[in-house]
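call fold(seq) -> C-alpha coordinates
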Amino acid sequence: MSSTLDGWPAPTLDPRAPLDATVVLPGSKSLTARYLVLAALAAGPSVLRAPLRSRDTRLMVDALEALGATVEDGDDGSWRVLPGPRRGGGAVDCGLAGTVLRFVPPLAALAPGSTTFDGDPGARTRPLEPLLDALTTLGADVTRHGEPAVPFTVTGTGGLAGGAVTLDASASSQFVSALLLSGAAMRDGLRLTVDGPMPSAPHVAMTCSLLSEAGVVVETGPGWWTVAPEPVSPLDVDVEPDLSNAAPFLAAAALAPEGGRVRVPGWPERTTQAGDALRGLLDAMGADVDLGADGLTVTSSGEVHGVDADLSEVGELTPVVAAIAALAVSSSHLRGIGHLRGHETDRLAALTREITALGGDVTETDDGLRISPRPLHGGRVSTYADHRMATAAAVLGLRVPGVVVEDVATTSKTMPGFPLAWTSMLERT
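ret:
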Protein backbone atom coordinates (compact mmCIF):
# COMPACT_ATOMS: atom_id res chain seq x y z
CA MET A 1 0.00 0.00 0.00
CA SER A 2 1.28 3.44 -0.83
CA SER A 3 1.11 6.67 1.10
CA THR A 4 -1.25 9.35 -0.20
CA LEU A 5 -1.92 12.99 0.56
CA ASP A 6 -4.71 11.72 2.84
CA GLY A 7 -2.40 9.39 4.74
CA TRP A 8 -1.14 5.82 4.65
CA PRO A 9 -3.76 3.04 4.98
CA ALA A 10 -2.27 0.68 7.56
CA PRO A 11 -2.57 -2.96 6.41
CA THR A 12 -4.33 -5.50 8.61
CA LEU A 13 -3.34 -9.06 9.43
CA ASP A 14 -5.07 -11.72 7.35
CA PRO A 15 -6.38 -14.37 9.76
CA ARG A 16 -6.45 -16.90 6.90
CA ALA A 17 -2.73 -16.54 6.13
CA PRO A 18 -0.35 -17.34 9.02
CA LEU A 19 2.33 -14.70 9.47
CA ASP A 20 5.83 -16.09 8.88
CA ALA A 21 8.44 -13.46 8.11
CA THR A 22 12.08 -12.55 8.56
CA VAL A 23 12.82 -8.86 9.11
CA VAL A 24 16.35 -7.51 8.66
CA LEU A 25 16.85 -4.35 10.71
CA PRO A 26 19.12 -1.40 9.93
CA GLY A 27 21.85 -0.36 12.34
CA SER A 28 21.11 1.11 15.76
CA LYS A 29 20.47 4.84 15.82
CA SER A 30 21.75 5.16 19.39
CA LEU A 31 24.96 3.31 18.63
CA THR A 32 25.53 5.06 15.28
CA ALA A 33 25.17 8.52 16.83
CA ARG A 34 27.56 7.77 19.69
CA TYR A 35 30.14 6.10 17.45
CA LEU A 36 30.08 9.11 15.11
CA VAL A 37 30.76 11.54 17.96
CA LEU A 38 33.61 9.44 19.34
CA ALA A 39 35.07 9.00 15.84
CA ALA A 40 35.04 12.78 15.35
CA LEU A 41 37.01 13.15 18.60
CA ALA A 42 39.42 10.28 17.91
CA ALA A 43 43.16 10.50 17.30
CA GLY A 44 42.86 8.96 13.81
CA PRO A 45 40.42 7.65 11.19
CA SER A 46 37.60 5.32 12.23
CA VAL A 47 35.40 2.87 10.30
CA LEU A 48 31.73 2.25 11.16
CA ARG A 49 30.25 -0.75 9.33
CA ALA A 50 26.47 -1.13 8.86
CA PRO A 51 25.64 2.25 10.42
CA LEU A 52 22.08 3.52 10.36
CA ARG A 53 21.54 5.89 7.46
CA SER A 54 18.48 7.90 8.39
CA ARG A 55 17.52 11.52 8.78
CA ASP A 56 18.80 11.67 12.37
CA THR A 57 22.18 10.14 11.63
CA ARG A 58 22.68 12.20 8.47
CA LEU A 59 21.99 15.33 10.52
CA MET A 60 24.69 14.09 12.91
CA VAL A 61 27.12 13.61 10.01
CA ASP A 62 26.36 17.13 8.73
CA ALA A 63 26.89 18.58 12.22
CA LEU A 64 30.25 16.86 12.70
CA GLU A 65 31.42 17.96 9.27
CA ALA A 66 30.45 21.54 10.14
CA LEU A 67 32.83 21.21 13.09
CA GLY A 68 35.78 19.91 11.05
CA ALA A 69 35.36 16.14 10.63
CA THR A 70 35.01 14.37 7.29
CA VAL A 71 32.70 11.38 6.79
CA GLU A 72 33.28 9.27 3.66
CA ASP A 73 31.00 6.60 2.20
CA GLY A 74 32.53 3.16 1.79
CA ASP A 75 31.61 0.81 -1.05
CA ASP A 76 30.29 -1.67 1.53
CA GLY A 77 27.89 0.84 3.10
CA SER A 78 30.33 1.78 5.85
CA TRP A 79 31.27 5.26 7.00
CA ARG A 80 34.92 6.27 7.34
CA VAL A 81 35.29 9.16 9.75
CA LEU A 82 38.36 11.38 9.55
CA PRO A 83 38.70 13.80 12.45
CA GLY A 84 40.01 17.16 11.30
CA PRO A 85 41.11 20.35 13.00
CA ARG A 86 38.11 21.51 15.00
CA ARG A 87 36.37 24.63 13.77
CA GLY A 88 33.25 26.57 14.62
CA GLY A 89 31.68 29.43 12.78
CA GLY A 90 28.91 27.46 11.09
CA ALA A 91 25.32 26.35 11.67
CA VAL A 92 23.97 23.01 12.88
CA ASP A 93 20.50 21.77 11.94
CA CYS A 94 19.28 19.49 14.73
CA GLY A 95 16.02 18.57 13.01
CA LEU A 96 14.13 16.70 15.73
CA ALA A 97 17.16 14.58 16.65
CA GLY A 98 17.78 14.59 20.38
CA THR A 99 21.23 13.10 19.77
CA VAL A 100 22.28 16.07 17.62
CA LEU A 101 20.61 18.58 19.93
CA ARG A 102 22.40 17.21 23.01
CA PHE A 103 25.62 15.48 21.85
CA VAL A 104 26.99 18.14 19.50
CA PRO A 105 27.03 21.35 21.64
CA PRO A 106 29.92 20.04 23.82
CA LEU A 107 31.93 19.44 20.63
CA ALA A 108 31.14 22.98 19.48
CA ALA A 109 32.47 24.26 22.81
CA LEU A 110 35.78 22.51 22.01
CA ALA A 111 36.11 24.27 18.63
CA PRO A 112 37.23 27.85 17.95
CA GLY A 113 34.45 30.11 16.70
CA SER A 114 30.69 30.46 17.10
CA THR A 115 28.31 27.67 16.11
CA THR A 116 24.56 28.28 15.98
CA PHE A 117 22.09 25.46 16.60
CA ASP A 118 18.52 25.37 15.27
CA GLY A 119 16.05 22.70 14.22
CA ASP A 120 12.48 21.77 13.41
CA PRO A 121 9.68 23.64 15.19
CA GLY A 122 9.22 20.70 17.56
CA ALA A 123 12.85 21.00 18.68
CA ARG A 124 12.10 24.38 20.25
CA THR A 125 10.32 22.76 23.17
CA ARG A 126 12.60 19.76 23.76
CA PRO A 127 14.31 19.81 27.19
CA LEU A 128 17.83 21.26 26.96
CA GLU A 129 18.44 23.93 29.60
CA PRO A 130 20.17 21.67 32.19
CA LEU A 131 22.76 20.65 29.58
CA LEU A 132 23.45 24.21 28.46
CA ASP A 133 23.77 25.32 32.10
CA ALA A 134 26.24 22.47 32.73
CA LEU A 135 28.29 23.46 29.68
CA THR A 136 28.45 27.01 30.98
CA THR A 137 29.70 25.72 34.35
CA LEU A 138 32.39 23.73 32.51
CA GLY A 139 33.67 26.88 30.77
CA ALA A 140 31.57 27.14 27.60
CA ASP A 141 30.15 30.40 26.24
CA VAL A 142 26.47 29.75 25.45
CA THR A 143 24.06 32.39 24.16
CA ARG A 144 20.34 31.65 24.19
CA HIS A 145 18.12 33.34 21.62
CA GLY A 146 14.84 33.48 23.48
CA GLU A 147 13.57 29.90 23.12
CA PRO A 148 13.62 27.12 25.74
CA ALA A 149 15.87 25.05 23.45
CA VAL A 150 16.94 26.07 19.94
CA PRO A 151 18.10 28.42 18.61
CA PHE A 152 21.25 29.01 20.65
CA THR A 153 24.92 29.71 19.93
CA VAL A 154 28.03 28.09 21.40
CA THR A 155 31.24 30.10 21.08
CA GLY A 156 34.42 28.13 21.64
CA THR A 157 38.05 29.10 21.96
CA GLY A 158 39.53 25.76 20.87
CA GLY A 159 39.21 23.97 24.20
CA LEU A 160 37.02 23.52 27.25
CA ALA A 161 38.16 23.60 30.85
CA GLY A 162 35.91 20.81 32.11
CA GLY A 163 36.05 19.81 35.77
CA ALA A 164 33.19 19.20 38.18
CA VAL A 165 29.52 19.77 37.37
CA THR A 166 26.14 18.72 38.71
CA LEU A 167 23.04 18.59 36.53
CA ASP A 168 19.38 17.63 36.63
CA ALA A 169 18.99 14.71 34.21
CA SER A 170 15.37 13.91 35.08
CA ALA A 171 14.19 15.07 31.63
CA SER A 172 16.75 13.11 29.58
CA SER A 173 19.67 10.76 30.11
CA GLN A 174 21.11 12.26 26.91
CA PHE A 175 22.36 15.19 29.00
CA VAL A 176 24.69 12.78 30.81
CA SER A 177 25.79 10.95 27.65
CA ALA A 178 26.49 14.25 25.90
CA LEU A 179 28.99 15.33 28.54
CA LEU A 180 30.56 11.89 28.95
CA LEU A 181 31.21 11.56 25.21
CA SER A 182 33.28 14.76 25.17
CA GLY A 183 34.71 14.50 28.69
CA ALA A 184 38.08 13.03 27.66
CA ALA A 185 38.68 16.02 25.35
CA MET A 186 38.20 18.56 28.17
CA ARG A 187 41.40 19.98 29.65
CA ASP A 188 40.62 18.86 33.22
CA GLY A 189 38.45 15.90 32.26
CA LEU A 190 34.97 15.57 33.72
CA ARG A 191 33.50 14.88 37.14
CA LEU A 192 29.76 14.62 36.61
CA THR A 193 27.05 14.19 39.24
CA VAL A 194 23.31 13.97 38.63
CA ASP A 195 20.87 15.63 40.99
CA GLY A 196 17.84 13.36 41.40
CA PRO A 197 16.42 10.55 39.25
CA MET A 198 17.51 9.81 35.68
CA PRO A 199 15.40 7.93 33.12
CA SER A 200 16.74 5.60 30.44
CA ALA A 201 19.81 4.53 32.42
CA PRO A 202 20.72 1.79 29.86
CA HIS A 203 21.54 4.52 27.35
CA VAL A 204 24.17 5.94 29.71
CA ALA A 205 25.55 2.43 30.26
CA MET A 206 25.78 2.15 26.47
CA THR A 207 27.74 5.42 26.33
CA CYS A 208 30.19 4.21 28.97
CA SER A 209 30.65 0.90 27.14
CA LEU A 210 31.45 2.66 23.86
CA LEU A 211 33.88 5.00 25.61
CA SER A 212 35.65 1.90 26.89
CA GLU A 213 35.84 0.58 23.29
CA ALA A 214 37.54 3.86 22.39
CA GLY A 215 40.11 3.49 25.17
CA VAL A 216 38.52 6.00 27.53
CA VAL A 217 38.21 4.92 31.15
CA VAL A 218 35.02 5.96 32.91
CA GLU A 219 34.74 5.52 36.65
CA THR A 220 31.21 5.49 38.01
CA GLY A 221 29.15 5.06 41.13
CA PRO A 222 25.58 5.83 42.18
CA GLY A 223 24.75 9.08 40.42
CA TRP A 224 28.30 10.06 39.40
CA TRP A 225 30.89 9.54 36.65
CA THR A 226 34.47 10.66 36.11
CA VAL A 227 36.35 10.80 32.81
CA ALA A 228 40.08 11.54 32.76
CA PRO A 229 41.54 13.73 30.00
CA GLU A 230 43.09 11.30 27.50
CA PRO A 231 43.16 10.56 23.76
CA VAL A 232 40.17 8.85 22.15
CA SER A 233 41.29 5.81 20.15
CA PRO A 234 40.10 5.30 16.56
CA LEU A 235 37.24 2.83 16.13
CA ASP A 236 36.73 -0.11 13.78
CA VAL A 237 33.27 -1.42 14.61
CA ASP A 238 30.19 -3.25 13.35
CA VAL A 239 27.01 -1.43 14.39
CA GLU A 240 24.40 -3.75 15.91
CA PRO A 241 20.87 -3.85 14.46
CA ASP A 242 18.50 -1.31 16.02
CA LEU A 243 16.57 -3.39 18.55
CA SER A 244 14.05 -0.64 19.33
CA ASN A 245 13.15 -0.54 15.63
CA ALA A 246 12.21 -4.20 16.00
CA ALA A 247 9.31 -3.28 18.29
CA PRO A 248 6.51 -2.93 15.71
CA PHE A 249 7.62 -6.00 13.75
CA LEU A 250 7.76 -8.20 16.83
CA ALA A 251 4.45 -6.73 17.95
CA ALA A 252 3.01 -8.03 14.69
CA ALA A 253 4.12 -11.52 15.67
CA ALA A 254 2.51 -11.21 19.09
CA LEU A 255 -0.77 -9.95 17.61
CA ALA A 256 -0.94 -12.49 14.79
CA PRO A 257 -3.19 -15.57 14.88
CA GLU A 258 -1.72 -18.45 16.87
CA GLY A 259 1.51 -19.72 15.36
CA GLY A 260 2.35 -16.52 13.50
CA ARG A 261 5.99 -15.60 13.86
CA VAL A 262 8.62 -13.01 13.00
CA ARG A 263 12.38 -13.61 13.05
CA VAL A 264 15.00 -10.86 13.46
CA PRO A 265 18.46 -12.15 12.45
CA GLY A 266 21.56 -10.76 14.11
CA TRP A 267 19.94 -10.10 17.50
CA PRO A 268 22.93 -9.94 19.87
CA GLU A 269 23.15 -12.33 22.79
CA ARG A 270 24.58 -9.48 24.87
CA THR A 271 23.91 -5.81 24.25
CA THR A 272 23.64 -2.42 25.90
CA GLN A 273 20.62 -1.49 23.76
CA ALA A 274 17.44 -0.73 25.68
CA GLY A 275 15.41 -2.41 22.95
CA ASP A 276 16.53 -5.81 24.24
CA ALA A 277 13.82 -5.37 26.91
CA LEU A 278 11.31 -6.29 24.20
CA ARG A 279 12.05 -9.94 24.91
CA GLY A 280 10.76 -9.76 28.47
CA LEU A 281 7.86 -7.45 27.67
CA LEU A 282 6.49 -9.61 24.85
CA ASP A 283 6.91 -12.74 26.94
CA ALA A 284 4.92 -11.09 29.74
CA MET A 285 2.19 -10.19 27.23
CA GLY A 286 1.79 -13.80 26.15
CA ALA A 287 4.07 -14.31 23.15
CA ASP A 288 6.66 -17.08 22.83
CA VAL A 289 10.12 -15.51 22.64
CA ASP A 290 13.22 -17.47 21.61
CA LEU A 291 16.75 -16.08 21.28
CA GLY A 292 19.17 -18.35 19.46
CA ALA A 293 22.28 -18.30 17.32
CA ASP A 294 20.25 -17.27 14.27
CA GLY A 295 18.60 -14.33 16.03
CA LEU A 296 15.33 -13.64 17.83
CA THR A 297 12.03 -15.32 16.98
CA VAL A 298 8.67 -14.22 18.43
CA THR A 299 5.72 -16.56 17.96
CA SER A 300 2.08 -15.77 18.71
CA SER A 301 0.10 -17.71 21.31
CA GLY A 302 -3.09 -16.32 19.80
CA GLU A 303 -3.92 -14.04 22.73
CA VAL A 304 -2.23 -10.91 24.07
CA HIS A 305 -2.42 -10.03 27.77
CA GLY A 306 -2.07 -6.67 29.43
CA VAL A 307 1.03 -5.88 31.45
CA ASP A 308 2.02 -3.88 34.51
CA ALA A 309 5.44 -2.57 33.53
CA ASP A 310 7.93 0.04 34.67
CA LEU A 311 9.29 1.42 31.40
CA SER A 312 11.46 4.15 32.94
CA GLU A 313 14.62 2.63 31.43
CA VAL A 314 13.05 1.79 28.06
CA GLY A 315 10.69 4.69 27.40
CA GLU A 316 11.27 4.54 23.64
CA LEU A 317 9.32 1.26 23.56
CA THR A 318 6.22 2.84 25.12
CA PRO A 319 4.26 3.78 21.95
CA VAL A 320 4.35 0.26 20.52
CA VAL A 321 3.74 -1.37 23.93
CA ALA A 322 0.75 0.97 24.40
CA ALA A 323 -0.60 -0.05 21.00
CA ILE A 324 -0.32 -3.74 21.89
CA ALA A 325 -1.96 -3.05 25.24
CA ALA A 326 -4.91 -1.36 23.52
CA LEU A 327 -5.49 -4.65 21.66
CA ALA A 328 -4.96 -6.94 24.67
CA VAL A 329 -7.61 -8.95 26.54
CA SER A 330 -6.77 -7.40 29.94
CA SER A 331 -5.74 -4.03 31.32
CA SER A 332 -2.24 -2.54 31.38
CA HIS A 333 -0.40 -0.02 33.51
CA LEU A 334 2.71 1.54 31.95
CA ARG A 335 4.74 3.38 34.59
CA GLY A 336 7.87 5.49 35.02
CA ILE A 337 7.53 7.35 31.73
CA GLY A 338 6.59 10.90 32.67
CA HIS A 339 9.73 12.09 30.87
CA LEU A 340 8.13 11.12 27.54
CA ARG A 341 6.25 14.40 27.68
CA GLY A 342 9.49 16.01 26.48
CA HIS A 343 10.26 13.77 23.49
CA GLU A 344 9.53 14.51 19.82
CA THR A 345 6.03 15.24 21.06
CA ASP A 346 4.27 14.77 24.39
CA ARG A 347 3.97 11.04 23.79
CA LEU A 348 1.70 10.37 26.77
CA ALA A 349 -0.85 12.96 25.65
CA ALA A 350 -0.53 11.89 22.02
CA LEU A 351 -1.07 8.19 22.76
CA THR A 352 -4.04 8.98 25.00
CA ARG A 353 -5.62 11.22 22.38
CA GLU A 354 -5.10 8.96 19.38
CA ILE A 355 -6.05 5.61 20.93
CA THR A 356 -9.11 7.18 22.57
CA ALA A 357 -10.16 8.62 19.20
CA LEU A 358 -10.25 5.05 17.86
CA GLY A 359 -12.56 3.99 20.68
CA GLY A 360 -9.90 2.95 23.20
CA ASP A 361 -9.82 3.50 26.95
CA VAL A 362 -6.57 5.25 27.94
CA THR A 363 -6.04 7.33 31.07
CA GLU A 364 -2.95 9.49 31.50
CA THR A 365 -1.37 9.40 34.99
CA ASP A 366 1.40 11.48 36.52
CA ASP A 367 4.05 9.08 35.28
CA GLY A 368 2.40 6.88 32.69
CA LEU A 369 -0.71 5.38 31.15
CA ARG A 370 -3.53 3.04 32.18
CA ILE A 371 -5.01 1.16 29.24
CA SER A 372 -8.12 -1.02 29.33
CA PRO A 373 -9.34 -3.17 26.44
CA ARG A 374 -12.24 -1.86 24.37
CA PRO A 375 -13.31 -2.55 20.78
CA LEU A 376 -11.50 -0.18 18.42
CA HIS A 377 -12.62 1.23 15.10
CA GLY A 378 -10.79 2.74 12.16
CA GLY A 379 -9.84 6.37 11.82
CA ARG A 380 -7.05 8.78 11.02
CA VAL A 381 -4.13 8.70 13.48
CA SER A 382 -2.02 11.82 13.87
CA THR A 383 1.71 11.24 14.32
CA TYR A 384 2.97 14.69 15.40
CA ALA A 385 6.17 14.29 13.32
CA ASP A 386 7.08 11.47 15.76
CA HIS A 387 8.39 8.27 14.21
CA ARG A 388 7.36 6.10 17.14
CA MET A 389 3.78 7.40 17.01
CA ALA A 390 3.70 6.36 13.35
CA THR A 391 4.90 2.82 14.05
CA ALA A 392 2.45 2.50 16.96
CA ALA A 393 -0.36 3.47 14.58
CA ALA A 394 0.78 0.78 12.15
CA VAL A 395 0.57 -1.77 14.99
CA LEU A 396 -3.00 -0.70 15.80
CA GLY A 397 -3.89 -1.16 12.14
CA LEU A 398 -2.86 -4.82 12.28
CA ARG A 399 -6.14 -5.68 14.01
CA VAL A 400 -8.24 -2.58 13.31
CA PRO A 401 -9.37 -2.14 9.71
CA GLY A 402 -9.51 1.40 8.45
CA VAL A 403 -6.60 2.92 10.38
CA VAL A 404 -4.99 5.67 8.31
CA VAL A 405 -1.55 6.92 9.42
CA GLU A 406 -0.82 10.59 8.94
CA ASP A 407 2.72 11.36 7.71
CA VAL A 408 4.09 7.83 7.80
CA ALA A 409 7.21 9.28 6.14
CA THR A 410 8.28 10.54 9.58
CA THR A 411 9.52 6.98 10.21
CA SER A 412 12.56 7.88 8.06
CA LYS A 413 13.94 9.52 11.21
CA THR A 414 15.17 6.10 12.32
CA MET A 415 14.01 3.56 9.70
CA PRO A 416 13.96 4.66 6.07
CA GLY A 417 11.66 2.46 4.02
CA PHE A 418 9.45 1.45 6.96
CA PRO A 419 6.17 1.31 4.96
CA LEU A 420 7.71 -1.05 2.39
CA ALA A 421 9.31 -3.22 5.08
CA TRP A 422 5.97 -3.36 6.92
CA THR A 423 3.88 -4.40 3.94
CA SER A 424 6.57 -6.83 2.78
CA MET A 425 6.51 -8.52 6.19
CA LEU A 426 2.75 -9.01 5.99
CA GLU A 427 2.98 -10.36 2.45
CA ARG A 428 5.55 -13.02 3.43
CA THR A 429 3.00 -15.58 4.52
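Residues 290 and 297 are 5 Å apart (CA to CA).
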